[in-house]
Amino acid sequence: MDIRAAQAGQAYSAAKPALAAATGQSKNPVADAATKFASVLQNAEATAKGSALESADPHALVMALSQTELAVETAATLRDRVVEAYQEILRMPV
């Protein structure tokens, strides 16, 4: 390994937390995704309650429901891929 490559790797590792803070990324993207998923569901629920009480726009309800549908489909796809990867690991010979 070249010394310059090692120094570049160390510099990158040192700068990575600063870059994550500057771009708004945290250290745990899974927790961020779960938080965003929960907020989408809460938003849809609040909009549905408002629509039931006739205080919300029906267009906002449709938008919230479509966002919720997309979030649930994404979570299901992610779950399926994780299960698929786990099964593939189990099939590997030891």
From TrEMBL:
One of its GO terms (biological process) is bacterial-type flagellum-dependent cell motility. InterPro entries: FliE. It holds the Pfam family FliE. It comes from the Bacteria. The keyword Aminoacyl-tRNA synthetase does not apply. GO terms for cellular component: bacterial-type flagellum. The keyword Lyase does not apply. Keywords: Bacterial flagellum, Cell projection, Cilium, Flagellum. GO terms for molecular function: cytoskeletal motor activity; structural molecule activity. This is Flagellar hook-basal body complex protein FliE. It comes from Tropicimonas isoalkanivorans.
